[in-house]
Amino acid sequence: MKKYYLTTPLYYVNAAPHIGHAYTTVAADVLARFLRANNRPVHFLTGTDEHGSKIAEAAAEAKLPVQEFADRNSAAFRELWAHLDIRYDDFIRTTEPRHESRVQECFQKLLDAGDVYKGRYRGFYCVSDETYWTETDAPPDEKGRRLCPNAECRKPLREVEEESYFFKLSKYQQPLLKHYQENPGFLMPTHRANEILRFVEGGLQDTAISRTKVKWGIPVPGDPEHTIYVWFDALLNYLTAAQSAGATEDIWPADVHIVGKEIYRFHSVTWPAMLMALGLPLPKSVFAHGWWTVDGQKMSKSQGNFVDPRDITREFGVDAFRYFLLREMPFGNDGNFSLESLRKRYNAELANDLGNLVSRVEQMVDSYLGGAMPGRNKDEAPSLDKEFAAKGPEIDARMEALDFCGALGLIWGGIGRLNTYVNEKTPWKLVKTDKPATEKVLFELVRSLRIVAGWIEPFMPQTAAKMHAQLGVRQFPVPLSPEQVLSGDKAGTGKISKAPPLFPRK
Ligand code: ME8
Fold this sequence. Notes:
CATH superfamily of the largest domain: HUPs
Number of strands: 15
Structural class: alpha/beta
Bound molecules: ligand ME8
CATH topology of the largest domain: Rossmann fold
Strand order of the largest sheet: 3-2-1-12-13-7
Mean pLDDT: 93
């Protein structure tokens, strides 16, 4: 069975990872965990982008040999992903031989096919984005400076004139437009599709794909004066990683490339055109999410306001950080990161709505039933069933559509319903007059909380594991799907134990 193949961008190793990188990677991890919990085979790829002038210049600034500099920073990404409970299947570095040799093969193939030719490039270049711009893309501003047209960058451009190999991107204008039209799920989310359609309809220029002035890169086969342009090199990682992971047909093509909006064009125009030229099937979709600002400001070196994820997890824990990232900003839109809104959500949604509910239920089962799983009357349909458990398919649909915020909204709707249910049924009063009725209420609550634990597992794996253990789910640490929780008592006849709060108030 073909695996569901999902990818993050390959992050530049010029600096330490920040919340922007964590965001994309956590989102991909949430999707991968959701699919695995539904028994879908998954291949989740992430990694680091290590060639080009941006990295070479950062290494020079750090006074380190480039490879050593790249090794260090690539390791920092891997360490952060371990800390954030990211379970990827493969981590590719563009300086690995398995990647470099295949990039050269692809370059040669396109050269032989006539889709790559030698010419001369004259124009502008942004080192920070590693992007070529023409004179018309970047007219001089009032001070006579040419700035990167990418709104997320706006750094000064360098003028470049050199011999270059070119990729015949122009040839793929019509095939791309046809592909977009025939595959409406390709450009995601749909509100970003127009921008790409307009760009491609406006005509595509052939694009330079080699540099003579940049030494830190993969040599062009047979012409070592040239190194392969870092984006041509980096985009191919999705293919070279799949090719090196065993039977390519089990993985290829990608089901979704998850990227930030600023690199959407590379992924939705250049990349599919490269694949067409190579005669390979295209990814099923390319999803561009929005950008975080921090306290209303763009994160930048000059502002010195990059948020280190560890500063957040130290105070709030890994799960709360993962939760906040996906709850605060609908996937596909822009949003703002602030400690104030994190604290607010932490206290209201995690400590109160969820944590407090779990503690109350455990406390009651402990006091009224000595911690035994409440019994149920098998002839009577559980009363929360229709309105609560039926949410499962709706949540799944949101997850499949990468609407993580929507899925969390539905889950918290369910948690809200459970809080209302406790307050309506007042088991602490009921227990004085009707023990069997109290037991039924507690049965409903425990079972519903087990379902909640399954729903939140992709977002908060540690919390889900704690909930399963505390709620007597014996199959721990394997997360249970709602169906498994519902299907029988076997999975959950362990003792229900009181435990410290899941989310101590901050
Ligand atoms: O672009 N908000 O690498 P990169 C949300 N190497 N997401 C953000 C973000 C923010 N403020 N800042 C960064 C590159 N990201 C290339 C990619 S792929 C073949 C090559 C996330 O280190 C987002 O996913 O600049 C964005 O696309 C990515 O980090 C850029 O990482």
